[in-house]
Structure formats: C-alpha cells, structure tokens
Amino acid sequence: MANGLPVSSVVSVSVSMSAIAASERDFGVGLILGDSNTIDTEERLRLYTDIDSVAEDFGTSAPEYLAAVAYFSADPGPAQCYIGRWAKTATSGILKGKILGTADQNIELFNVITDGGFSVNIDGSEKTLSSIDLQNETNLNGVASQIQTSLGGDGTCVWNGQQFVIRSSTTGATSTVTNVSSTQLSQLMGLDNGTTAVPGIAAETLLDAVTILADMSDDWYGLLPVATTDDQSLIDVANFIAATSTSRIMGITTQETDVLNASSNTDIASVLQSQQNNRVFVQYSSFSPYAACAAFGRAFTVNFSGENTTITLKFKQETGIQPEILTATQANTLKAKNCNVFAQYSNDTAIIQEGVMSGGWFFDERHGLDWLQNTVQTAVWNLLYTSTTKIPQTDAGVNRMVSVIESRLNQGVVNGLIAPGVWNGDSFGALNTGDTLTTGYYVYALPLSSQSQSERESRQAPAIQCAVKLAGAIHFVDIAINVNR
After folding, report:
1. Cα separation, 94 vs 153, whole angstroms
2. H or E segment and range at residue 471
3. Mean pLDDT for the chain?
4. Cα–Cα distance between 217 and 114 in angstroms, integer?
C-alpha cells in the first residue's frame, strides 16, 4: 500500500535544541597542595569527595591526608576538594601501566610465570629483567616486589591498587622510564601498551606549581599549601592569587610565635596585612599546621543558591583542631594583624576569631562577593548566549539585561549576603547618598541616548551600575543593665 504524499509538504515542523547555558563556578572547592609523589607532575590534580579515598591514595601519615582530615571534618562539611602536586624537589621519571580490571588482577594469571622477564629503558639505557618466578606469589604487591628486585638499583616498582608503576632511581629532566618490551609478563602487568610515561622534572618553586595548577583548572577556589616552605614563598603565591584574573583565595596556617608579638612586623601575618591582601586568610595555631584547612572546610559548606545559607566564620568551630589559650594581649595582637585563631573562652567554648582576610575584609564578604561577581557575569553571558534571537540595542534589550542582573542580586538577598540598608556611596541614576535601598540593591543603566556613535556602532551596551548593601554580621555586643532598687 502506498504511503502517500509526505505531510511535511503541507505542515513542516522543525525542532531546535537551545544552547546549554554556562554553569556558575563552585565557590566551595579547596585545593590542598603538597609535595608527596602520589600524584605525578603530569596529572597534577586529583578530585576527592571523601577522606577514605584520600587515605587509600596517600596513607594516613602524609601531610595531604592530615590536611584533608581537617578539611572534611568540618560540621557541616564540604562536598569535595582537590589535592595537587608540587615538585618541591626534582622528580623521577615514571612509567604507569594501564589500569587493570578486576579479572586482570587475578593472581592466578601471574602464578603461571616461572621464568618471566622483559626489557625496559631507564634513563636512556636498556635494562633486561629475567628469571622472575611468580608461582608462589599471593598478591600483586608480591609481583611488584619481584620486579623491583630484578631492577636492582636502577628503579623501583609498586602496585598502587589499580596499576603497576616503575620509577627511575634518578631525578631531574633526564630521568625517564620508557619502552617496555612485549612479553607474557609485561602484558599481564599492563606495561606493554596503554602505558603513560612521565619524565622527571627539575625542582620547582611553590609559585611555579600554583601557576601551573591555576592554568590547568578554574574549578578550584581556595588554595591550601601544606608542604613545609618559607614565608617568602607563601607571600609570592599570595601575591599571585591576589593578581590573577580568576577569583581565588588562599589559606595559610602559621605556627610562628612572632605573630603574637605586637612589636614584630616581619612575621607573615604582618607582611600580608601591610600589603592589604584581601585574598589570603592567615591563621595562627601552635597545635596544628592544618588549622586553615579546617576553617576553609567550614566556610565551603555555603550554598549560595539556598535561602539564608551565608555565614560568618567568627563563632564557628574547627573540628579536630585544639583551641589556643591566649592572653588578652595576645588576642588583641592577632586581631591587630588580621591573623585568625581558634580561641578557647572561659565559658568552655572555642570559636574562630575574627574570620578576616589579611587586608581587613571579612571572609564572608570576600567569599560572597566572588560568588556575586560570577553569578551576575554568568547570567548576562547566558542571556546573550542562549537567546535564539539577538538582544536588541534598545531600551527593551537593556531592560532584559537589567532584569537578569536584578534576579541574581535578589538571590543575594535570599541567601543572606545582601540586605536593605542606607546607601552611603556616591549618587547615580535615581539613587542619592543617604537613600535607603529597600531591596538591598539598585540597578541603573545609562540611557541609550547618552551613548556616543562609536559605542553604538561597536554594539556596546550602555554602562550599567549596581548599588549593593551587604547584610554584614554581628560580631560584638555591648549590653548595659541598669538596676534600681
């Protein structure tokens, strides 16, 4: 039977899928940066969502693990963090075998090898392994141990739970492991194909590592260096974090008692305060080098898409960090240097105080305004990007942009960052100094009629100005009780 004429000749319907909008950044992701060799210099970054996975990779004594414990122990706690690699010392060349599936990890497959071997190029020279007998081995760690014995002093071999890794005994740019020959043993180990060779590199500065990690990913927001280093290296990185175009912050724990000395102006807290760096958070702790990790873990629980979710760091606790017992003089000295501390109080409570950045901004202000900048930027971008027609250079088009901006500022009101208050800034538009922002914000777009011809021809929107009143937070209270009898 004939199908007849196509319906589309009379009724034509097309379906178009709109573009997927750009997502906002996550301002709750920390980057713990250490120098353990668990993560190689090619991978550099690894994402973790729980402490168990960190323990599997790093063990329970590495600085990265101890920092992650402080970070994830916050109550409530953050959802995830990155751990990054700093090549503090020259690294060794490595060869990573392919990841072995569960079936491929069956030790019985290896037990048939009674006289195995293969060749591998280490540092440019071929090394031949032979007479390897695996018939009595009970696990893959035993296989790796035999390979290491056969390598002698030229290298090491480990089974890391998912793949075999051969590492050269030398370090630096000439340290390499490559070209494993294809034999029954190398095939079983996943070393004959699907491998990744990572050459060694010379030692790098902390700043070198951070710039590489910043270039690799915009996903991380809060940097937490945990490898031992000097103050100047930390200051160099803090200056980079302050200057980079992608908004980030940095947390530093200092155990130097000079920060308690009012006459000292060379300690790291004093130096960063003098530089007015509002992107670095310094905390003093005599007990733990990971105190700032605990503070960031607590701060990064904020969900800016929620209602009444913003917090101040002051009055919060640091799980697992022992509080400091300070004199009033010491506490005032730390406050004067914008240096935070987890302090014990006489009523058997302990709190973070004062919750400030080195430049004097409160942490929640820095955190919240970074979110606000990104959410407004992303919203306007998505208006332009996802529109199936153009946003016209007319009052109607400008009003669409203003409406989008106002919707994001209103979310700032919903989450508690913004609140109604008196505007004490300069006048613009219909807003005058001393006026009350009844919504907490005001958005003004210059009239299109005020645009120059060149701006219009270049399709530039008129300047848009926003007035925003922060909600702030109460940190101190004076109460007077008058009694009459």
Report:
1. 15
2. none
3. 95
4. 47
Q: How would DSSP label each residue in 171-205? A: -STT--EE-----HHHHHHT-SSS-EEE-------
Alpha helices in 217-277, H assignment, sequence order: 231-243, 268-274
Assign 479 to helix, strand or coil.
coil
Q: What spatial distance separates the first Cα and last Cα of the chain, rounded to whole Å?
A: 107
Which residue, chain included where needed, has tokens 């080098």? 289
Q: What is the β-pairing status of strands 164-168 and 155-159?
A: antiparallel
pLDDT tens for 248-277 read: 999 999 999 999 999 999 999 999 999 999
Looking at this protein, which amino acid is placed at residue 122?
I
The radius of gyration computed from the CA coordinates of the chain, to the nearest angstrom, equals 29
- pLDDT tens digits along 378-388: 999 999 999 98
Q: Which residue matches tokens 């914000």? A: 441
**Does the pLDDT at position 1 exceed 70?**
no
CA dihedral of 185, 189, 195, 200, whole degrees rounded to 10: -100
Q: Are strands 94-96 and 196-198 parallel, antiparallel or unpaired?
A: antiparallel
CA atoms within 13 A on the CB side of 167: 20
In terms of phi and psi (left: phi > 0; alpha: psi -120 to 50; beta: otherwise), the region of 174 is alpha
Residues in the chain: 485
pTM as predicted: 0.92
β 155-159/222-225 pair status: unpaired
Other CB atoms within 10 A of residue 175 CB: 23
